[in-house]
Write a structure and sequence with these properties.
Helices cover 35% and strands 22% of the residues. Pfam families: Amino_oxidase.
């Protein structure tokens, strides 16, 4: 008998798990609560029919699994790698080159030497050197997460002597657009993991490319077609309300009046989505790890797209900004340079996305548009005289994962106390070491492999590991582990109390 697998949530993780299991001959049904596959990434339309997205998503140099996926699908959805700028109300602050084109230096010297800071003094940049000890000590192991997760990122940087100016003008802006919250609200463990993966591990890691259209159209649509070609079912507007179980095995997934029989279930929804499912599910509420998800949180996002009356001069297509709002990071993108449909548009089309945007969600569009334009003009003055001819704004409450201090204990692993229920998503614990979309996709493949391991049907997915640490980092981590082991086994035994 062919096993029936139900996957809940049609984002990167859910589509990844469904795609691989369908290829291996499983009867897979993917349930998506929204109107189309892709969840928040799927996008919307303005009243005039123009495309909107829940923020622009970058695809960084280490995204080996996603790049393998698009090659398998036979699509070419990405721009070339792009350079980026960083702005504050004082103007241009930093320029990031294409690091892969620069002479290679041992990590993290390439990032340090080749990033062009226009205002930040060298003495402040050098104050980051002691932080390398924490970078070496944080090896993504459960023990490392437990050591650093109770500390805020702000405290981490203070403890290691990072200057206040370096923190305010470099590290906190990275947190605001990487972990989507200010340092006092971010786990030090998450900060170290994110910074290492995207910036510090290898010189080229910060290089990024973008989708040449909406991710929903360019990637998810052909992906869903491939899933259906292999026999998988992808069903939209199916909101899961409960599960049925027999002891430690789930036997069905319930969507209102509909029941989907299941030999295994993979949940790949975000934190907010899972909290809603658990709150309404007597079956899931019987298990502590699902109840504990209520201790986790998520962050508000505001995504906007503006159509201007003329072409404006933007030095770089992708830009990150800080200092305009005390606890909010934001980005803006030149879609004329990035997306095919706007390349020949008569006026500039600009995507502006705000993270940790709590203070903006209650404002209506007429109140928001002057604020957004004022922020843009604070970076590039030419925006102040341009006219907005059309716009679209998407409010996304509790939309992205919040890795708050102390949250690690509540993050779910890939397995659960139900023997046939598995998890995927960017907030699921994995030892792969990746982050964001790549991490979500990897955990979806890992969940598919757990199903295959349980049922013995088909071959497991090949998961591309992250690039190994450079030799000097490997040596430093080996020495660090030896010192920790010596301390734990010998020095502690000498203590009287």
């Amino acid at each position: 008998m062919t096993p029936n697998i139900v996957v809940v949530g049609a984002g990167w993780a859910g589509l990844g798990a469904t795609h691989h299991l369908a290829k291996q001959g499983y009867a897979v049904t993917l349930l998506e609560a929204g109107p189309q596959p892709g969840g928040l990434v799927a996008g919307w339309r303005t009243a005039s029919g123009r495309t909107l997205e829940a923020g622009i998503h970058g695809f960084w140099y280490p995204y080996g699994n996603i790049f393998s996926l698009v090659a398998e699908l036979g699509i070419q959805p990405f721009t070339p790698f792009t350079e980026s700028h960083q702005y504050s109300p004082a103007g241009l602050e930093a320029e990031a080159p294409l690091f892969q084109t620069m002479p290679p230096l041992p990590a993290p010297l390439g990032t340090f030497c080749y990033t062009r800071f226009l205002r930040l003094p060298l003495a402040d940049r050098l104050s980051a050197l002691p932080l390398l000890q924490a970078v070496v000590d944080f090896d993504n192991s459960p023990e490392a997460w437990q050591r650093y997760d109770g500390m805020t990122a702000r405290e981490l940087f203070r403890r290691y002597g990072v200057s206040q100016r370096l923190y305010q003008e470099s590290f906190e802006p990275m947190l605001l657009v990487g972990l989507f919250a200010p340092g006092e609200q971010c786990s030090a463990a998450a900060a170290l993991g994110m910074l290492y993966y995207f910036i510090l591990a290898h010189q080229a890691d910060f290089d990024v490319m973008w989708c040449r259209g909406s991710v929903g159209d360019r990637i998810f649509r052909p992906w869903v077609e491939q899933i259906q070609h292999h026999g998988g079912q992808v069903l939209a507007q199916k909101r899961v309300t409960d599960v049925r179980h027999d002891g430690d095995r789930v036997t069905a997934v319930v969507c209102g009046d509909e029941v989907f029989a299941a030999d295994a279930v993979i949940f790949t929804v975000g934190i907010t989505g899972l909290k809603k499912i658990v709150a309404g599910s007597p079956a899931l509420r019987t298990r502590r790890e699902f109840r504990d998800v209520q201790n986790l949180g998520a962050i508000d996002v505001l995504a906007s797209r503006l159509w201007f009356d003329r072409k404006l001069t933007l030095p770089r297509p992708s830009n990150a900004c800080f200092g305009f709002e005390p606890t909010t990071g934001w980005t803006f993108f030149d879609l004329n340079a990035l997306q095919d449909e706007y390349r020949d548009a008569p006026g500039s089309v600009i995507e502006v996305d705000f993270y940790h945007a709590n203070q903006f969600l209650a404002l209506d569009d007429r109140e928001l548009l002057p604020i957004i334009q004022e922020h843009l003009a604070g970076c590039i003055p030419e925006f102040s005289t341009a006219l907005i001819q059309d716009s679209g704004i998407v409010r996304l409450p509790q939309a992205v994962s919040h890795f708050a201090p102390g949250s690690y204990r509540y993050l779910l692993p890939g397995t659960t106390s139900f023997s046939n229920v598995f998890m995927g998503g960017d907030w699921i614990v994995t030892d792969h070491g990746s982050w964001s979309q790549e991490k979500a996709y990897v955990t979806g493949l890992e969940a598919a492999n757990r199903v295959i391991g349980q049922w013995g049907l088909g071959a497991p997915a090949t998961i591309v590991p992250i690039q190994a640490d450079e030799p000097h980092i490997q040596l430093a981590r080996t020495l660090n582990r030896s010192v920790r082991q010596f301390h734990d086994t010998f020095l502690k035994s000498l203590q009287w109390f």
